[in-house]
Amino acid sequence: MNKIGFNLLVWTAMLSDRMNPIAERLKTIGYDGIECYLGETDTSVYARFGQHLQQLGLASTCVMTLGADENPISESAAVRTAALDRIKVAIDCAQALNATVICGPFHSAFSVFSRQEPQRIEYERSAEVLRQAGDYAAQAGIVLTPEALNRFECYLCNTTAQLRHLVELTDHPNVRAMFDTHHANIEEKSFPEAIQMLAPVLAHVHISENDRGTPGSGHIPWDDTFKTLADINYTGWLTIEAFTRNDPDFANAIGVWREYNEPWHIAENGLTFIRSMMSDR
Length: 281
Hints:
This is Xylose isomerase. One of its GO terms (molecular function) is isomerase activity. Residues 24-253 form the Xylose isomerase-like TIM barrel domain. InterPro entries: Sugar_Epim/Isomerase (IPR050417), Xyl_isomerase-like_sf (IPR036237), Xyl_isomerase-like_TIM-brl (IPR013022). Keywords: Isomerase. This protein is of the alpha/beta class. It has a single domain, classed as Alpha-Beta Barrel (TIM Barrel). The chain contains ten helices and eight strands. The chain has helices spanning 20-29, 43-56, 77-97, 120-140, 160-170, 181-187, 191-198, 222-231, 248-254, 263-279, and strands at 4-7, 33-37, 59-63, 101-104, 143-146, 177-180, 202-207, 238-240. Strands 5-4-3-2-1-8-7-6 form an eight-stranded parallel sheet. Strand 3 (59-63), helix 3 and strand 4 form a beta-alpha-beta unit. The protein starts with a strand and ends with a helix.
């Protein structure tokens, strides 16, 4: 049975005790877990929130990104080392939270482009960093699940075919893959084919509408999505990732210039929608 999670990014990219009441309400609504952005590097912050989640009976996952100075595919060995070090810090924070998954586009730096198509050496560099990060994640009991992003946010992995290639090149049991419905809506020809492509390595799924608002309110091919996930016997997380302008710095960094839906509208209606889609399978 899939667990259903909710990403806190509709409120903020920075974790603090202010999120405790939100976690409590998400538990009351019926969520199984919460996904946190790894923007803070102080493990004590995650430990405190993790204890609160445990008291509530909520599990957790995490999401992260990397910047230009910590790019796994950089020509600079020092920058690649910085990328590995940053992922290790993220793993420490996730372990303090008691999270089991770190997802996100950490195969390369977010919104850093080379003005050419991805090169074989870049996949090899990324795989080497991910392989070493996988070793570190293994001792923490965490699975790393990099994701394919749309062409406007990265170039190394836009499609599930590219992502599967990278995961197989990495060849580490703690490095799998995630599927994000928003990005697939831009880059994939067919949702069923994309999900089937990732099936052997799939370990995390983001449920995200085409406009990043409430799932079920846009034009993502949800029937195809849930049917194919059921067909491949996917049993991992189904986590809603939606965005707002509640955290202006984060919103500006990812190009969110307007409101799509109010956070609790997304949380309440999104959960109802996922449950209805699951019950139809």
